[in-house]
TrEMBL record:
The keyword Oxidoreductase applies. This is SDR family oxidoreductase. InterPro entries: NAD(P)-bd_dom_sf, Sc_DH/Rdtase_CS, SDR_fam. GO terms for molecular function: oxidoreductase activity. It comes from the Bacteria. The keyword Nucleotide-binding does not apply.
């Protein structure tokens, strides 16, 4: 089990799904956690239950990122881990709706999933540079749709592909600067989360279809992805940066005809 004793972590999108499972896992592994979510009621309730600190946050708000980082450093003294988990879906294909509807959906999902993740990386790197040895671990949550996009959601697919490239850019920049700040991406397969449930409402039957893409023929549990995140957050993998960690039940390892 990864040891996160004494580590200070921020987890965005903490109110449900992978974010909530990650808060639980980090606390059980010894970390102190500040969770954030745009759903303040659910996020506060979860953090109160588990013994974490909570702040409301819209990750697409640049000013709020500065406030969250300052709050974490003020309360705990430093920042060791950032999990950029908050995300949403656009629910629109390239041919859906009017231009205004598609562009509004695109702008919103890119602002949260991609720009919000970039702003989190930037704010975290600035804080982690002050750690002894300039150490830290940033984990960005991408998706298998970054590699095998959904025709039914152009914004989500593009944003998660962007998260993969962003992760590698951040990782290599930090390494080239001589910083011991690692940045890796976790690529979950179809997982029992609020986002997938929302996508199911737009595309009925999607959950069963994506579950069938895995040779294991099921959806992932959020705790399974949280375990991978905890490993990347720990000191067990100091030479691992810019990597994609698949937690997809083998979905991307099998020919689609089989």
């Amino acid at each position: 089990m990864p040891d996160l004793s004494g580590k200070i972590a921020i987890v965005t999108g903490c109110a449900s799904g992978i974010g909530a499972a990650t808060v639980r896992r980090f606390l059980s592994d010894g970390a102190q956690v500040l969770g954030t979510d745009i759903n303040a009621d659910a996020g506060q309730a979860l953090c109160d239950e588990l013994g974490a600190t909570f702040l409301p946050q819209d990750v697409s708000d640049r000013a709020r990122w500065s406030e969250v980082i300052v709050a974490a450093v003020t309360k705990f003294g430093r920042l060791d881990i950032l999990v950029n988990n908050a995300g949403n879906v656009s629910g629109a294909s390239i041919g859906d709706g009017s231009d205004e509807e598609l562009f509004a959906a695109w702008d919103q999902v890119i602002a949260v999933n991609l720009t919000g993740t970039m702003m989190g990386c930037r704010a975290a790197v600035a804080a982690m540079k002050n750690n002894p040895g300039a150490t830290g671990s940033i984990i960005n949550i991408a998706s298998t749709t970054a590699i095998t996009p959904l025709p039914t959601d152009v914004g989500y697919s593009a944003s998660k592909a962007g998260v993969r490239a962003l992760t590698k850019s951040v990782a290599t920049w930090c390494a080239k600067q001589g910083l011991a700040i690692r940045c890796n991406a976790v690529i979950p397969g179809a997982t029992e989360t609020g986002i997938l449930n929302a996508a199911e409402e737009v595309t009925p039957g999607l959950k069963a279809a994506v579950a069938a893409t895995s040779p294991m023929n099921r959806l992932a549990y959020p705790a399974e992805t949280a375990a991978a995140i905890a490993f990347l957050a720990s000191d067990e993998c100091p030479f691992m940066t810019g990597a994609d960690m698949l937690v997809d039940g083998g979905a991307l390892s099998i020919h689609p005809g089989f």
